[in-house]
Amino acid sequence: MTKGSAPAGDASRLIDGKIAALDDWRGAVLARVRTLIHEAGPEVSEEIKWRGVPVWSHGGIICTGETYKAVVKLTFARGASLADPAGLFNASLDGNTRRAIDLREGDTINETALKELIRAAAALNAASRKK
Which region holds residue 87: left if phi is over 0, alpha if psi is between -120 and 50, else beta? Predict the structure, then answer.
């Protein structure tokens, strides 16, 4: 656990609560994304950081799940280093490190491509730790 984060069991419960509190399309999207993350990487852990932001990690942060009025934003901590052949990244494209996917109401999630990104991010974290 890092400074400002909740223990794993507490984090999962807090994410459950956040999803339940978002009683509109954002809660459904965040819940679906969470399911896809765990399907892609069953070993992925959950944390809550930065005043309530869900964070999924494996050997380092894979992505965060922020909710705003108009988007659910998945920010990949090292997204600039990931191949994105499906073109999922559509936000935070100017930086040298992060990349994000903004999901809006009614968007269809390319579940296969998202799972591939999750796996690639976990593999990148694992490779970096071995160096």
Answer: left
d(CA 51, CA 40) in angstroms, rounded, equals 26
pTM over 0.85: yes
Q: How large is the C-alpha radius of gyration of the chain?
A: 14
List, in order, residues 6 or more apart from 26 with CB less than 8 Å away: 67, 72, 105
99-114: per-residue pLDDT in tens? 999 999 999 999 999 9
How is residue 71 written in tokens? 């988007």
Q: How far apart are alpha carbons 37 and 15 in whole angstroms?
A: 14
DSSP one-letter string for 47-114? EEETTTEEEEESSSEEEEEEE-SS-EEEEETTGGGS--TT----BS-SSSS-EEEEE-TTPPP-HHHH
Q: One-letter amino acid identity for 65? A: G
CA distance 85 to 125: 19
